[in-house]
Amino acid sequence: MSSLAIVHSRAQVGIQALPVTIEVHLTNGLPRLSIVGLPETAVRESQDRVRSAIINSQFEFPLQRITINLAPADLPKEGGRFDLAIALGILAASRQIPKEELSQYEFLGELALNGNLRPVRGILPMALEARKAQRYVVVPIENASEAAMVSGVSILPIKTLLDICSHLQQVDSITPYCSEETPNPTVLNHISDLSDVRGQHHAKRALEVAAAGGHNLLMLGPPGTGKTMLASRMPGILPPMTEDESLATATIASIAVGGFDASIWGIRPFRTPHHTASGVALVGGGSHPRPGEISLAHNGILFLDELPEFDKRVLEVLREPLESGRITISRAAQQAEFPANFQLIAAMNPCPCGYLGDPSNRCQCSPHQVARYRSRISGPLLDRIDLHIEVPNLPRIELRKDTVRTSSAEVRVRVIMAREKQLERTNKANNLLSNQEIERVCVLNENDEQLLDSAIERLGLSARAWYRILKVARTIADLDDSEAIQTSHLTEAITYRQLERNKH
Protein backbone atom coordinates (compact mmCIF):
# COMPACT_ATOMS: atom_id res chain seq x y z
CA MET A 1 0.00 0.00 0.00
CA SER A 2 1.33 3.48 -0.83
CA SER A 3 0.11 7.01 -0.36
CA LEU A 4 1.16 10.44 -1.60
CA ALA A 5 0.58 13.88 -0.09
CA ILE A 6 1.58 17.30 -1.47
CA VAL A 7 2.16 20.38 0.72
CA HIS A 8 3.20 23.92 -0.27
CA SER A 9 5.90 26.06 1.31
CA ARG A 10 8.55 28.58 0.24
CA ALA A 11 12.33 28.83 0.26
CA GLN A 12 14.24 32.04 0.83
CA VAL A 13 16.72 33.14 -1.84
CA GLY A 14 17.81 36.72 -1.28
CA ILE A 15 14.60 38.68 -0.81
CA GLN A 16 12.65 36.22 -2.92
CA ALA A 17 10.29 33.60 -1.49
CA LEU A 18 10.43 30.88 -4.14
CA PRO A 19 7.75 28.15 -4.15
CA VAL A 20 8.70 24.72 -2.83
CA THR A 21 6.46 21.69 -3.15
CA ILE A 22 6.90 19.04 -0.44
CA GLU A 23 5.94 15.63 -1.79
CA VAL A 24 5.62 12.87 0.82
CA HIS A 25 5.37 9.27 -0.37
CA LEU A 26 4.76 6.28 1.92
CA THR A 27 5.47 2.72 0.74
CA ASN A 28 5.75 -0.68 2.39
CA GLY A 29 9.20 -1.74 3.42
CA LEU A 30 11.69 -1.33 6.21
CA PRO A 31 10.99 1.88 8.19
CA ARG A 32 13.18 4.64 6.82
CA LEU A 33 12.87 8.37 6.17
CA SER A 34 14.85 10.04 3.40
CA ILE A 35 14.74 13.66 2.25
CA VAL A 36 15.78 14.52 -1.32
CA GLY A 37 15.78 17.74 -3.31
CA LEU A 38 19.05 19.46 -2.33
CA PRO A 39 18.39 19.73 1.45
CA GLU A 40 21.13 21.21 3.60
CA THR A 41 22.10 20.12 7.09
CA ALA A 42 19.31 21.88 9.00
CA VAL A 43 16.71 20.45 6.59
CA ARG A 44 18.10 16.89 6.84
CA GLU A 45 17.99 17.18 10.62
CA SER A 46 14.28 18.04 10.43
CA GLN A 47 13.43 14.33 10.29
CA ASP A 48 14.34 13.96 13.96
CA ARG A 49 12.43 17.08 14.98
CA VAL A 50 9.40 16.05 12.93
CA ARG A 51 9.35 12.51 14.33
CA SER A 52 9.39 13.73 17.94
CA ALA A 53 6.84 16.49 17.24
CA ILE A 54 4.40 14.03 15.63
CA ILE A 55 4.69 11.50 18.46
CA ASN A 56 4.42 14.18 21.21
CA SER A 57 1.33 15.58 19.49
CA GLN A 58 -0.40 12.19 20.05
CA PHE A 59 -0.19 11.06 16.41
CA GLU A 60 1.42 7.89 15.10
CA PHE A 61 4.67 8.09 13.20
CA PRO A 62 4.25 5.66 10.26
CA LEU A 63 6.52 2.63 10.36
CA GLN A 64 6.99 2.59 6.61
CA ARG A 65 9.47 3.76 4.02
CA ILE A 66 8.98 7.54 3.81
CA THR A 67 10.40 9.52 0.89
CA ILE A 68 10.19 13.32 1.04
CA ASN A 69 10.97 15.30 -2.09
CA LEU A 70 11.53 19.05 -1.93
CA ALA A 71 10.87 20.36 -5.43
CA PRO A 72 12.35 21.95 -7.44
CA ALA A 73 15.34 19.71 -6.89
CA ASP A 74 17.95 22.25 -8.05
CA LEU A 75 16.94 24.93 -5.50
CA PRO A 76 19.00 24.80 -2.26
CA LYS A 77 16.84 24.41 0.87
CA GLU A 78 18.14 25.57 4.23
CA GLY A 79 16.90 26.16 7.78
CA GLY A 80 14.07 24.69 9.80
CA ARG A 81 11.35 26.53 7.88
CA PHE A 82 10.03 23.33 6.20
CA ASP A 83 9.46 21.36 9.44
CA LEU A 84 5.74 22.11 9.65
CA ALA A 85 5.09 21.33 5.98
CA ILE A 86 7.02 18.02 6.21
CA ALA A 87 5.14 16.96 9.35
CA LEU A 88 1.76 17.72 7.76
CA GLY A 89 2.79 15.87 4.62
CA ILE A 90 3.61 12.75 6.65
CA LEU A 91 0.32 12.96 8.57
CA ALA A 92 -1.66 13.47 5.36
CA ALA A 93 0.10 10.65 3.52
CA SER A 94 -0.62 8.32 6.45
CA ARG A 95 -4.27 9.44 6.40
CA GLN A 96 -4.22 10.87 9.92
CA ILE A 97 -5.40 14.24 8.60
CA PRO A 98 -7.31 15.01 5.38
CA LYS A 99 -5.15 15.97 2.42
CA GLU A 100 -7.83 17.33 0.11
CA GLU A 101 -7.60 20.95 1.29
CA LEU A 102 -3.82 21.21 1.71
CA SER A 103 -3.51 22.86 -1.70
CA GLN A 104 -5.24 25.98 -0.32
CA TYR A 105 -2.48 26.67 2.23
CA GLU A 106 1.20 27.56 2.45
CA PHE A 107 3.04 26.45 5.59
CA LEU A 108 6.17 27.84 7.23
CA GLY A 109 7.54 27.13 10.70
CA GLU A 110 10.14 25.26 12.71
CA LEU A 111 8.97 22.50 15.05
CA ALA A 112 10.11 21.96 18.61
CA LEU A 113 10.31 18.37 19.86
CA ASN A 114 7.07 18.81 21.83
CA GLY A 115 5.14 19.94 18.76
CA ASN A 116 5.28 23.68 19.43
CA LEU A 117 6.05 26.09 16.58
CA ARG A 118 9.07 28.35 16.60
CA PRO A 119 9.28 31.57 14.51
CA VAL A 120 11.37 31.75 11.34
CA ARG A 121 12.76 34.53 9.15
CA GLY A 122 11.40 35.59 5.79
CA ILE A 123 7.68 35.61 6.61
CA LEU A 124 6.94 38.92 4.88
CA PRO A 125 8.17 37.95 1.38
CA MET A 126 6.33 34.64 1.77
CA ALA A 127 3.06 36.44 2.59
CA LEU A 128 3.50 38.69 -0.46
CA GLU A 129 3.91 35.70 -2.77
CA ALA A 130 1.10 33.73 -1.08
CA ARG A 131 -1.22 36.65 -1.80
CA LYS A 132 -0.40 36.36 -5.50
CA ALA A 133 -1.04 32.60 -5.35
CA GLN A 134 -4.32 33.24 -3.46
CA ARG A 135 -3.52 30.82 -0.64
CA TYR A 136 -3.91 30.98 3.13
CA VAL A 137 -0.67 31.50 5.09
CA VAL A 138 -0.05 29.29 8.13
CA VAL A 139 2.76 30.61 10.35
CA PRO A 140 3.90 30.48 13.99
CA ILE A 141 1.94 32.91 16.15
CA GLU A 142 5.08 35.00 16.77
CA ASN A 143 5.32 35.70 13.02
CA ALA A 144 1.64 36.60 12.56
CA SER A 145 1.98 40.35 13.11
CA GLU A 146 4.73 40.52 10.50
CA ALA A 147 2.74 38.54 7.93
CA ALA A 148 -0.31 40.74 8.59
CA MET A 149 1.59 43.74 7.22
CA VAL A 150 0.60 42.40 3.79
CA SER A 151 -3.00 43.35 3.05
CA GLY A 152 -5.34 41.00 1.23
CA VAL A 153 -3.98 37.72 2.60
CA SER A 154 -5.49 35.48 5.33
CA ILE A 155 -3.04 34.63 8.09
CA LEU A 156 -3.62 31.58 10.32
CA PRO A 157 -1.43 31.86 13.44
CA ILE A 158 -0.69 28.60 15.26
CA LYS A 159 1.11 27.65 18.46
CA THR A 160 1.39 23.90 17.96
CA LEU A 161 1.23 21.21 15.32
CA LEU A 162 -1.99 20.00 16.93
CA ASP A 163 -3.64 23.40 16.30
CA ILE A 164 -3.36 23.23 12.52
CA CYS A 165 -4.28 19.52 12.46
CA SER A 166 -7.50 20.29 14.39
CA HIS A 167 -8.23 23.07 11.89
CA LEU A 168 -7.69 20.80 8.88
CA GLN A 169 -9.90 18.12 10.49
CA GLN A 170 -12.56 20.81 11.06
CA VAL A 171 -12.56 20.04 14.78
CA ASP A 172 -11.40 23.45 16.00
CA SER A 173 -11.12 26.16 13.34
CA ILE A 174 -8.41 28.83 13.60
CA THR A 175 -9.57 32.43 13.36
CA PRO A 176 -7.55 34.44 10.80
CA TYR A 177 -5.16 36.87 12.46
CA CYS A 178 -6.29 40.47 12.76
CA SER A 179 -3.79 43.08 13.88
CA GLU A 180 -4.96 44.89 17.00
CA GLU A 181 -3.15 48.09 16.09
CA THR A 182 -2.99 49.91 12.80
CA PRO A 183 0.65 50.73 11.96
CA ASN A 184 1.26 54.46 12.18
CA PRO A 185 4.08 55.48 9.83
CA THR A 186 4.20 59.02 11.26
CA VAL A 187 5.22 57.99 14.79
CA LEU A 188 8.51 59.80 15.34
CA ASN A 189 8.45 60.21 19.12
CA HIS A 190 11.65 58.23 19.59
CA ILE A 191 13.63 60.44 17.17
CA SER A 192 15.53 63.40 18.63
CA ASP A 193 14.49 66.86 17.48
CA LEU A 194 16.57 69.21 15.33
CA SER A 195 15.87 72.03 17.79
CA ASP A 196 18.25 70.31 20.24
CA VAL A 197 21.20 71.44 18.09
CA ARG A 198 22.46 74.95 18.90
CA GLY A 199 23.98 77.02 16.12
CA GLN A 200 25.28 75.32 12.96
CA HIS A 201 22.62 76.97 10.79
CA HIS A 202 24.56 76.25 7.60
CA ALA A 203 24.73 72.54 8.49
CA LYS A 204 21.02 72.47 9.35
CA ARG A 205 20.23 74.06 6.01
CA ALA A 206 22.35 71.41 4.23
CA LEU A 207 20.51 68.71 6.17
CA GLU A 208 17.19 70.14 4.97
CA VAL A 209 18.39 70.22 1.35
CA ALA A 210 19.69 66.65 1.63
CA ALA A 211 16.36 65.44 3.07
CA ALA A 212 14.28 67.26 0.45
CA GLY A 213 16.13 65.81 -2.53
CA GLY A 214 17.42 62.53 -1.09
CA HIS A 215 21.02 63.71 -1.53
CA ASN A 216 24.12 62.21 0.08
CA LEU A 217 25.88 64.41 2.62
CA LEU A 218 29.38 64.59 4.09
CA MET A 219 30.09 66.71 7.19
CA LEU A 220 33.63 67.87 7.91
CA GLY A 221 34.57 69.31 11.30
CA PRO A 222 36.48 68.95 14.59
CA PRO A 223 35.24 66.60 17.34
CA GLY A 224 32.32 67.86 19.42
CA THR A 225 30.82 70.26 16.89
CA GLY A 226 27.54 68.35 16.50
CA LYS A 227 28.08 66.19 13.39
CA THR A 228 26.64 63.05 14.97
CA MET A 229 23.81 65.03 16.60
CA LEU A 230 22.86 66.48 13.24
CA ALA A 231 22.93 63.09 11.51
CA SER A 232 20.76 61.45 14.18
CA ARG A 233 18.08 64.14 13.60
CA MET A 234 17.87 63.32 9.89
CA PRO A 235 15.10 60.67 10.16
CA GLY A 236 12.84 63.22 11.85
CA ILE A 237 12.81 65.54 8.84
CA LEU A 238 12.46 62.94 6.07
CA PRO A 239 9.14 62.49 4.24
CA PRO A 240 6.92 59.61 5.42
CA MET A 241 7.35 56.27 3.68
CA THR A 242 4.82 55.08 1.13
CA GLU A 243 3.25 51.64 1.59
CA ASP A 244 5.47 50.21 -1.16
CA GLU A 245 8.59 51.64 0.50
CA SER A 246 7.50 50.29 3.89
CA LEU A 247 6.94 46.82 2.44
CA ALA A 248 10.29 46.83 0.64
CA THR A 249 12.19 47.91 3.76
CA ALA A 250 10.31 45.46 5.99
CA THR A 251 10.95 42.61 3.54
CA ILE A 252 14.72 43.10 3.85
CA ALA A 253 14.51 43.24 7.66
CA SER A 254 12.38 40.08 7.58
CA ILE A 255 15.19 37.98 6.09
CA ALA A 256 17.97 39.59 8.16
CA VAL A 257 19.46 38.04 11.29
CA GLY A 258 17.42 40.14 13.71
CA GLY A 259 14.13 39.73 11.82
CA PHE A 260 11.44 42.38 11.40
CA ASP A 261 10.01 44.37 14.30
CA ALA A 262 6.40 45.25 13.48
CA SER A 263 6.50 48.24 15.86
CA ILE A 264 8.82 50.15 13.47
CA TRP A 265 6.61 49.66 10.41
CA GLY A 266 6.68 52.76 8.21
CA ILE A 267 9.66 54.37 9.98
CA ARG A 268 12.71 54.95 7.82
CA PRO A 269 15.73 52.89 8.94
CA PHE A 270 18.79 54.62 10.38
CA ARG A 271 21.84 52.32 10.28
CA THR A 272 25.13 53.24 11.95
CA PRO A 273 27.77 50.54 11.36
CA HIS A 274 31.04 50.87 13.27
CA HIS A 275 34.14 51.82 11.28
CA THR A 276 35.61 48.34 11.91
CA ALA A 277 32.79 46.79 9.80
CA SER A 278 33.96 44.52 6.99
CA GLY A 279 32.93 44.73 3.37
CA VAL A 280 30.59 41.74 3.81
CA ALA A 281 28.95 43.39 6.84
CA LEU A 282 28.39 46.53 4.80
CA VAL A 283 27.14 45.13 1.47
CA GLY A 284 26.01 41.66 2.53
CA GLY A 285 27.26 38.18 1.73
CA GLY A 286 27.83 34.75 3.22
CA SER A 287 27.46 31.26 1.76
CA HIS A 288 23.72 31.94 1.78
CA PRO A 289 23.71 35.65 0.90
CA ARG A 290 22.23 37.87 3.59
CA PRO A 291 21.58 41.63 3.29
CA GLY A 292 24.26 43.97 4.63
CA GLU A 293 23.98 47.40 6.22
CA ILE A 294 23.41 49.18 2.91
CA SER A 295 20.35 47.01 2.19
CA LEU A 296 19.07 47.27 5.76
CA ALA A 297 19.21 51.04 5.20
CA HIS A 298 17.04 50.75 2.05
CA ASN A 299 14.70 53.78 1.84
CA GLY A 300 16.46 55.23 4.88
CA ILE A 301 19.79 56.52 6.17
CA LEU A 302 23.23 54.91 6.28
CA PHE A 303 25.35 56.98 8.67
CA LEU A 304 29.11 56.42 8.52
CA ASP A 305 30.83 58.25 11.36
CA GLU A 306 34.63 58.71 11.23
CA LEU A 307 34.52 58.00 7.50
CA PRO A 308 38.31 57.87 6.87
CA GLU A 309 38.66 55.26 9.62
CA PHE A 310 36.78 52.72 7.51
CA ASP A 311 38.98 50.40 5.46
CA LYS A 312 39.44 51.97 2.04
CA ARG A 313 38.47 48.75 0.25
CA VAL A 314 35.27 48.66 2.30
CA LEU A 315 34.37 52.21 1.27
CA GLU A 316 34.98 51.44 -2.40
CA VAL A 317 32.24 48.80 -2.41
CA LEU A 318 29.75 51.63 -1.82
CA ARG A 319 30.38 53.15 -5.22
CA GLU A 320 28.20 50.82 -7.29
CA PRO A 321 25.12 50.79 -4.98
CA LEU A 322 25.31 54.59 -4.60
CA GLU A 323 24.77 54.80 -8.36
CA SER A 324 22.45 51.87 -9.02
CA GLY A 325 20.51 51.54 -5.76
CA ARG A 326 21.08 47.75 -5.80
CA ILE A 327 23.78 45.27 -4.85
CA THR A 328 24.32 41.86 -6.47
CA ILE A 329 26.11 39.17 -4.43
CA SER A 330 27.44 36.21 -6.40
CA ARG A 331 28.42 32.88 -4.87
CA ALA A 332 29.29 29.54 -6.48
CA ALA A 333 25.91 28.05 -5.53
CA GLN A 334 23.65 31.02 -6.12
CA GLN A 335 23.34 34.72 -6.87
CA ALA A 336 21.22 37.17 -4.87
CA GLU A 337 20.29 40.77 -5.56
CA PHE A 338 19.25 43.12 -2.77
CA PRO A 339 17.86 46.65 -3.05
CA ALA A 340 20.10 49.33 -1.56
CA ASN A 341 18.54 52.70 -2.31
CA PHE A 342 19.92 54.40 0.79
CA GLN A 343 20.88 57.97 1.61
CA LEU A 344 24.49 58.24 2.73
CA ILE A 345 25.26 60.63 5.59
CA ALA A 346 28.92 60.67 6.59
CA ALA A 347 31.06 62.56 9.07
CA MET A 348 34.81 63.03 9.33
CA ASN A 349 37.45 65.09 11.07
CA PRO A 350 39.50 67.55 8.98
CA CYS A 351 42.79 65.86 9.95
CA PRO A 352 44.11 62.87 11.97
CA CYS A 353 44.03 64.75 15.28
CA GLY A 354 40.73 66.39 14.38
CA TYR A 355 41.58 70.02 15.15
CA LEU A 356 42.77 71.47 11.84
CA GLY A 357 41.49 75.05 11.60
CA ASP A 358 40.25 75.08 15.20
CA PRO A 359 40.72 78.45 16.96
CA SER A 360 42.58 76.71 19.78
CA ASN A 361 45.50 75.97 17.41
CA ARG A 362 45.84 72.47 18.89
CA CYS A 363 46.48 70.81 15.51
CA GLN A 364 50.06 69.62 14.99
CA CYS A 365 49.40 67.66 11.79
CA SER A 366 51.68 68.31 8.82
CA PRO A 367 50.22 68.99 5.35
CA HIS A 368 51.42 65.55 4.29
CA GLN A 369 49.54 63.88 7.18
CA VAL A 370 46.37 65.82 6.37
CA ALA A 371 46.60 64.90 2.67
CA ARG A 372 47.23 61.24 3.49
CA TYR A 373 44.29 61.19 5.91
CA ARG A 374 41.86 62.66 3.38
CA SER A 375 43.15 60.44 0.57
CA ARG A 376 41.51 57.49 2.34
CA ILE A 377 38.33 58.74 0.69
CA SER A 378 38.79 58.23 -3.04
CA GLY A 379 37.81 60.79 -5.64
CA PRO A 380 35.18 58.52 -7.25
CA LEU A 381 33.46 58.01 -3.88
CA LEU A 382 33.63 61.72 -3.06
CA ASP A 383 32.15 62.46 -6.48
CA ARG A 384 29.05 60.47 -5.52
CA ILE A 385 28.40 62.58 -2.41
CA ASP A 386 26.30 65.59 -3.40
CA LEU A 387 26.86 67.87 -0.40
CA HIS A 388 30.13 68.53 1.41
CA ILE A 389 29.81 70.95 4.31
CA GLU A 390 31.97 72.25 7.14
CA VAL A 391 30.72 72.01 10.71
CA PRO A 392 33.05 74.38 12.59
CA ASN A 393 33.68 74.73 16.29
CA LEU A 394 31.51 77.73 17.30
CA PRO A 395 32.24 80.17 20.17
CA ARG A 396 30.20 79.45 23.29
CA ILE A 397 28.68 82.93 23.30
CA GLU A 398 27.21 82.23 19.87
CA LEU A 399 25.74 78.95 21.09
CA ARG A 400 24.18 80.64 24.15
CA LYS A 401 22.55 83.31 21.97
CA ASP A 402 20.86 80.67 19.79
CA THR A 403 17.66 80.37 21.81
CA VAL A 404 15.06 80.30 19.01
CA ARG A 405 15.60 77.14 16.98
CA THR A 406 13.57 75.50 14.23
CA SER A 407 12.01 72.17 15.14
CA SER A 408 12.15 68.99 13.07
CA ALA A 409 8.40 69.23 12.47
CA GLU A 410 8.74 72.66 10.81
CA VAL A 411 11.58 71.51 8.58
CA ARG A 412 9.71 68.31 7.72
CA VAL A 413 6.76 70.30 6.37
CA ARG A 414 9.06 72.14 3.93
CA VAL A 415 10.82 68.90 2.98
CA ILE A 416 7.51 67.14 2.24
CA MET A 417 6.30 70.04 0.09
CA ALA A 418 9.55 70.02 -1.91
CA ARG A 419 9.45 66.24 -2.33
CA GLU A 420 5.84 66.38 -3.55
CA LYS A 421 6.92 68.83 -6.27
CA GLN A 422 9.60 66.40 -7.38
CA LEU A 423 7.22 63.43 -7.46
CA GLU A 424 4.70 65.45 -9.44
CA ARG A 425 7.38 66.53 -11.92
CA THR A 426 9.28 63.27 -12.53
CA ASN A 427 7.75 60.71 -10.13
CA LYS A 428 11.07 60.43 -8.26
CA ALA A 429 13.30 62.36 -5.86
CA ASN A 430 15.89 64.69 -7.41
CA ASN A 431 18.82 62.47 -6.41
CA LEU A 432 17.47 59.74 -8.73
CA LEU A 433 17.21 61.93 -11.83
CA SER A 434 18.90 60.56 -14.94
CA ASN A 435 21.21 62.76 -17.01
CA GLN A 436 18.47 63.25 -19.61
CA GLU A 437 15.99 64.29 -16.93
CA ILE A 438 18.52 66.69 -15.42
CA GLU A 439 18.96 68.41 -18.76
CA ARG A 440 15.19 68.73 -19.03
CA VAL A 441 14.27 69.96 -15.52
CA CYS A 442 17.48 71.71 -14.45
CA VAL A 443 17.70 74.37 -17.14
CA LEU A 444 20.01 77.34 -16.47
CA ASN A 445 20.14 80.71 -18.17
CA GLU A 446 23.28 81.68 -20.10
CA ASN A 447 24.91 83.60 -17.23
CA ASP A 448 24.34 80.77 -14.76
CA GLU A 449 25.76 78.25 -17.22
CA GLN A 450 28.93 80.34 -17.41
CA LEU A 451 29.00 80.56 -13.60
CA LEU A 452 28.76 76.78 -13.26
CA ASP A 453 31.36 76.16 -15.98
CA SER A 454 33.73 78.54 -14.21
CA ALA A 455 33.21 76.79 -10.87
CA ILE A 456 33.72 73.36 -12.43
CA GLU A 457 36.98 74.47 -14.04
CA ARG A 458 38.25 76.27 -10.94
CA LEU A 459 37.50 73.35 -8.61
CA GLY A 460 38.55 70.70 -11.11
CA LEU A 461 35.28 68.80 -10.81
CA SER A 462 34.17 65.84 -12.93
CA ALA A 463 31.15 65.60 -15.20
CA ARG A 464 29.39 63.58 -12.48
CA ALA A 465 29.90 66.44 -10.00
CA TRP A 466 28.51 68.85 -12.61
CA TYR A 467 25.27 66.88 -12.78
CA ARG A 468 25.10 66.57 -9.01
CA ILE A 469 25.41 70.32 -8.51
CA LEU A 470 22.48 70.77 -10.89
CA LYS A 471 20.39 68.25 -8.95
CA VAL A 472 21.13 70.02 -5.66
CA ALA A 473 20.29 73.39 -7.23
CA ARG A 474 16.97 71.93 -8.43
CA THR A 475 16.20 70.80 -4.86
CA ILE A 476 17.03 74.23 -3.42
CA ALA A 477 14.69 75.78 -5.99
CA ASP A 478 11.96 73.34 -4.96
CA LEU A 479 12.40 74.32 -1.30
CA ASP A 480 12.09 77.95 -2.44
CA ASP A 481 8.92 77.07 -4.41
CA SER A 482 10.58 78.28 -7.60
CA GLU A 483 9.80 76.80 -11.01
CA ALA A 484 13.19 77.86 -12.40
CA ILE A 485 16.67 77.55 -10.91
CA GLN A 486 17.82 81.03 -9.92
CA THR A 487 21.40 82.27 -9.54
CA SER A 488 21.08 82.15 -5.74
CA HIS A 489 20.04 78.48 -5.90
CA LEU A 490 22.99 77.57 -8.10
CA THR A 491 25.44 79.55 -5.97
CA GLU A 492 24.26 77.79 -2.82
CA ALA A 493 24.62 74.39 -4.52
CA ILE A 494 28.21 75.20 -5.50
CA THR A 495 29.07 76.13 -1.90
CA TYR A 496 28.18 72.57 -0.89
CA ARG A 497 31.37 71.19 -2.45
CA GLN A 498 33.52 71.88 0.62
CA LEU A 499 36.23 69.28 0.06
CA GLU A 500 36.86 70.40 -3.54
CA ARG A 501 37.23 73.99 -2.30
CA ASN A 502 39.69 72.84 0.36
CA LYS A 503 41.87 71.24 -2.30
CA HIS A 504 42.33 74.49 -4.21
What does this structure look like?
It is a single chain. This protein is of the alpha/beta class. The protein has two domains: 3-168, Ribosomal Protein S5, domain 2 (2-Layer Sandwich), CATH 3.30.230; 194-503, P-loop containing nucleotide triphosphate hydrolases (Rossmann fold, 3-Layer(aba) Sandwich), CATH 3.40.50. 38% of the residues lie in helices and 17% in strands. It contains 22 helices and 18 strands. It has helices at 41-44, 46-56, 83-93, 123-133, 144-147, 161-168, 201-213, 227-232, 243-255, 279-283, 293-296, 312-316, 319-324, 367-374, 379-383, 396-401, 408-426, 435-441, 446-459, 463-479, 487-495, 498-503, and strands at 3-13, 16-27, 32-36, 65-71, 105-107, 110-111, 117-118, 136-140, 155-158, 217-220, 270-271, 284-285, 290-291, 301-304, 326-330, 335-339, 343-348, 387-390. The protein has a five-stranded parallel beta sheet with strand order 11-14-17-10-18. Strands 1-2-4-3 form a four-stranded mixed beta sheet. Strands 5-8-9 form a three-stranded parallel beta sheet. α7 packs across α20. The longest helix is centred in the C-terminal third of the chain and has 19 residues, at 408-426. The radius of gyration is 28 Å and the shape is elongated. The protein starts with a strand and ends with a helix. The model has no long low-confidence stretch (mean pLDDT 90).
